[in-house]
Write the structure tokens for this entry.
Amino acid sequence: MGHVHADSEVEPGTLLVAAPTMFDQNFRRTVVFVIDHRDEGTLGVVLNKPSEVPVNEVLPGWGSHVVEPESVFVGGPVEKKTALCLAALRTGEDAEELPGVIAVRGPVALVDLDADPDSLVSKVRGMRVFAGYAGWDAGQLAAEINRGDWLIVPALPGDVLATPNRDLWSHVLRRQGLPTALLATHPGDLQLN
């Protein structure tokens, strides 16, 4: 039997949940949705870091089509001027057959921001725009997983549209069952404990 890589469970549509011991400010208590994962590297967006910047300021015409809050989310520390958009498609819609989107997994798709938002709005449950992304070179994510920085868990389509007033990090951990669910009660700052 061959060696199983630490990131072998990572695939498009999974979540990387920052371990309570992750203190990198870019990723502390974050939930990253994996968009692409291959031998050359991994790309995802942080789902739970809203910014104060309205989507309409960056992408006129898209602001009224994204879910509340209608602000750009900080997708990660890489290429912060690059915008990515994720959508959760309505039941019955197939990303493979829908112009203007690229299938990620299940009902979650990457939206072509050059497409006409009006043509997509009836086909999606919601969309969210991210500035920048999280990226790992070959072997980098596996090393971080081995170090215990990330938990790999399944995503639900609603995760990509979760509102910031819900603590997505705790919520995702809680639904994993024991013992992982206990991590959701971690105070974050041990000095406060």
